[in-house]
Write the structure tokens for this entry.
Amino acid sequence: MRPKESYDGAIPSGNSVAMNNLVRLGRLTGRTSFTDRADGVASAFSHQLQVAPSAHSHLVAGVQAAAGPSLEIVIAGTPGEPDTVALLDVVRREYLPNSALLLVAGGEHGETIRALAPYVAHHAPVDGKAAAYVCRNFACERPTTDPDRLRATILDAIGKENG
């Protein structure tokens, strides 16, 4: 029998990395099978986390990410186009550690993303312009094409003062 390593040292344990990756995949795709598996990792090591949380810092971060609110931001537009870049720049300026950012383009790339993350199936540009959808727990607000409005929506979603 092989022991399951849970302690995080200078290099996080494989189980901690797996948990964080499963949480992230769940947020990116909207598939609960990933988050269910992440919950299984947390359950398997719950006793160790209670006894010595400081020895499991990366695993604690995964538990925190899994337990916290979900924020997904979907940009529907053409990569490299000024309107798409402007919306992506707004998202990239904020510190959003537990969020998922998806770029849904047209054509084959967009179909691949839609197959991997079915919750973005109907996310599309608006009136020929790149559009941003800010979603919490996969429930999306109305799309915006305005970078300033996107910033305000993101700040509201993460609980910061607009300004």
